[in-house]
Amino acid sequence: MPPRRPQPDPGLSPSEWHTQELLLMREVMRGIGRSLAPALVLREMLHLMSELLGLNRGRIVLADPAPGHKSQPPTACIQHAYGLTQAEVARGRYAWGEGITGRVLATGQPAIVQDIDAEPLFLFRAVERSHLPPVTVAFIALPIEVNNVPIGVLACHRIRSRQRHLNDDLAVLRAMATLAGQLLQLEELVAEQTRRLEARNAVLAQALNTNSARYGLIGNSPPLLQALNELEQVSQTAATVLLLGESGTGKELFARAVHLASPRRDQPFIKVNCSAIPDALFESELFGYERGAFTGAGSARAGWFEQAHGGTIFLDEIGELPLAMQSKLLRTLQEGTLARLGGKQEVRVNVRVVAATNRDLAREVATGRFRQDLFYRLNVIPIQLPSLRERREDIRALALHFVSRANQAHQRNVNLASDALARLEDHAWPGNVRELGNLIERLVLLADRPLLTAVDLERFLPQSDSALDTGRADSPLPAVGPEAAAGPALAPLEPRSPPPTIAAPLVRDYAWAHSHNVDTLQAALALAQGNQSRAAQSLGLTLRQFSYRLRKAGLR
């Protein structure tokens, strides 16, 4: 702070006044160079305005934080001042539009009062008239703006008897108000960046302190730890493992965990989605083919089982396997041999089989859609995977993991506030971990701010949790991604079971084809976003049966 100077002589020449102005600007700039803290710089600015230019009792009035209720009018108070007592500063509180100061805040227009005694709107709230000089006193108030929005007022008293043009004082005050707005904006930007960094550091600290990521499975809830414990107990054996649970619970990660925890960890891990292979290609895909086995087979090819020799093969959606292929798979599992399509010799394979399904295979056996002997062969070590609703204590860790992964993948920097994480924990999650991961990725891509709160999540979550929370382990709904969650919700479709008696295939297909009308098929497709496999699951059908009904309904 420069040494205290005497009040300027009212009889200074124009050149001397200009020198005082330059000194004011230089000292303010030096103050900014020493510190960017607005409190220090703005008070020194008001101090220099008084000592060098005679603009006394300067004050900066700033808007208070937004009121909690919209019915409450916004207010502002004196935040920085020079020449005012603490009591005067405390009285300097104004509602929007109240008095001269409140009117400048509300309109964003400067106000010049030539004589405060003759102005009925002047309140004398902060400084009583008896504490002012017994001469004509003027009052100047200019708006402080950020992005063309008034956020405060720079005001001061001025003695009219001075030999100095009012326009000169106005020019200096405009420069000081502009500088104050820039300093306050810079302070807010620094504070916002600090909040973002603190939130990011909290996420990283939690990630570093988390010891629950085993085999890529995040969480430490009792249901998850129980499933992991069962997995590790059987991992050292060659027994077949059957993973059961709703769609989206992470069966592929569990299957890979079985492989990584076993002595076969350095051998191939082959994953096969049985619902994605056309019926005509099942045998050639699983068991391979010889050259000339069919048109276009110009060379021999090893199937998935041969490629997994010595390692693990993961048969996902095993409930979609056609009956004709079930008997061939059973033979391979029992004898450890296979025959390529068009081949005459058997090939011996040493493969650990991990199968997964979200269907109730026992019910499929009862209805004749799955072989009983194959079911017993697969059901050696059944492991039930918990739904996300059963492991809510893992949702926070999973959400932070997905946020970090999406930020890295899409070069974003989005974080979730604590109330947003609490809102995620309250959601029903019919689509389980897959739905949570899809929702988080959408949040990161569409976020318009770096820190998202619970209010920001509402437009991404389904309107009603109960409308979608009807999935069960034996007949789950298809996973609902964030795209479906943001759009109009369709009423959940009740899975239909085939007739309890096992009739001839032709009669059964005819009955089932007429049990699903065109509207039901179209609604299932819309709910599954065009994915026929998921639409078939929602109706309790296989992909082949669903395709047959589409053709019958003329939708193919």
Provide a descriptive summary of the structure in words:
- The chain is built from 22 helices and 17 strands.
- The protein is α/β, with parallel strands linked by helices.
- Helix 2 packs antiparallel against helix 5 (166-209), helix 20 packs across helix 21 (532-538) and helix 21 packs across helix 22 (543-552).
- The chain is elongated, with a radius of gyration of 37 Å.
- Mean pLDDT is 83; it is low at 1-6 and 464-515.
Sheet having the most strands: 6 strands, antiparallel
Into how many domains do the coordinates divide?
A: 4
- CA-based gyration radius: 37 Å
Please identify which CATH superfamily of the largest domain we are dealing with. GAF domain
Q: What value does the average pLDDT take?
A: 83
Low-confidence stretches: 1-6, 464-515
Tally of helical segments:
22
Beginning-to-end CA distance, first to last residue = 83 Å
Number of strands: 17
Name the structural class.
alpha/beta
CATH architecture annotation name of the largest domain: 2-Layer Sandwich
Reported by name, the CATH topology of the largest domain is: Beta-Lactamase
What is the C-level CATH assignment of the largest domain?
A: Alpha Beta
Strand percent estimate: 5-15%
Shape: elongated
Helix content: 40-55%
